[in-house]
Design brief:
The protein contains 14 helices and no strands.
């Protein structure tokens, strides 16, 4: 995504927070971003598509932070899982996305409702797969039900505490408590084999989750274009990381352990620069590509 298009998203996000999604017009976004009407529609067919792109970016940021948290760690470590679950809540707070969710929660627009549903289902699918990683394949049939219960405990506990104390509550202690509760519930579920979220519901979730997967060729093309777009004032270390990643990804048998080790320093080398968003996007695509190659795409 080019810099100008990202600026439009930033302006739109701020307007949706300040004015509300429904109250913000496309003309408001055009004027705020200082672009023409044609440019806006070249980027986004509608205001809904603009919001969907904002949600997609938040998931992209969530995904890469989770990849970085788990890299080199024990995938069964509950403390790591706790931190991973907390990531989306942290991003929602940082980007003030809850204000946007509130402004569109009662929308009657079917495409918008489905976009929000897909956003939430992606989080559910991610946690269900991570719970299988922690507890083993034997809980696969009940993993989505467990994930729903974890999120329900977290969300309702946070809501009550915020309502009662009128302040933001750090979620990690609540997440840990919810995971401990699930840890106690799972043996009983395995014993009774009783589940409400059955195969048909799981298939519905899987069919309504949006996945953006890029081939190795597409990733290398984007990375090559990224490198060519760097100037003499850009990070020299970042250029070295990017060039090494491109070289390794172009090999017939890439050394994925080396690629993984370079992704975080590559991303951080361009943090707080005009290239930050694209560097994050590229790193995220490469993380997914590596996980797929390792038959481990749940992060």
């Amino acid at each position: 995504m080019n810099t100008r298009k990202r600026k439009v998203l930033d302006v739109a996000r701020q307007l949706f927070i300040e004015k509300g999604f429904k109250e913000t017009s496309i003309m408001d976004i055009i004027q705020g971003a200082q672009i023409s009407k044609g440019t806006f529609y070249n980027y986004f067919p509608s205001k809904n598509d603009c919001l969907i792109a904002i949600l997609r970016e938040s998931r992209e940021e969530t995904s890469i932070r989770r990849h970085e948290l788990i890299f080199g760690q024990d995938i069964k470590d509950i403390d790591i899982l706790t931190k991973q679950i907390a990531v989306l809540m942290q991003i929602n707070r940082e980007q003030n996305l809850m204000r946007i969710f509130e402004s569109v929660s009662n929308s009657q627009d079917e495409s918008l409702r489905m976009a929000l549903m897909s956003h939430h289902l992606q989080e559910l699918e991610w946690l269900a797969k991570r719970l299988v990683e922690v507890y083993g394949d034997e809980i696969s049939i009940m993993s989505y039900e467990c994930a729903i219960q974890v999120f329900a405990m977290i969300q309702h506990t946070l809501r009550i505490l915020i309502f009662a104390e009128d302040r933001y509550v750090e979620p990690e202690a609540i997440i840990k408590m919810s995971l401990r509760n699930i840890d106690a519930i799972i043996p009983r579920m395995l014993e009774t084999k009783e589940v409400i979220i059955g195969i048909e519901t799981i298939h519905f979730i899987k069919n309504n989750v949006e996945h953006h997967i890029m081939s190795q060729e597409m990733v290398t093309q984007q990375l090559d274009g990224f490198i060519k777009g760097l100037g003499p004032c850009d990070s020299k270390k970042g250029l070295e990381y990017a060039s090494y990643l491109l070289s390794e990804l172009s090999e017939s048998n890439p050394k994925y352990f080396i690629i993984e080790a370079l992704l975080t320093p590559f991303r951080k080398a361009f943090a707080k620069t005009t290239h930050a968003a694209e560097a994050r996007e590229i790193a995220n695509y490469i993380w997914r590509l590596v996980r797929i190659e390792q038959n481990d795409e749940q992060f």
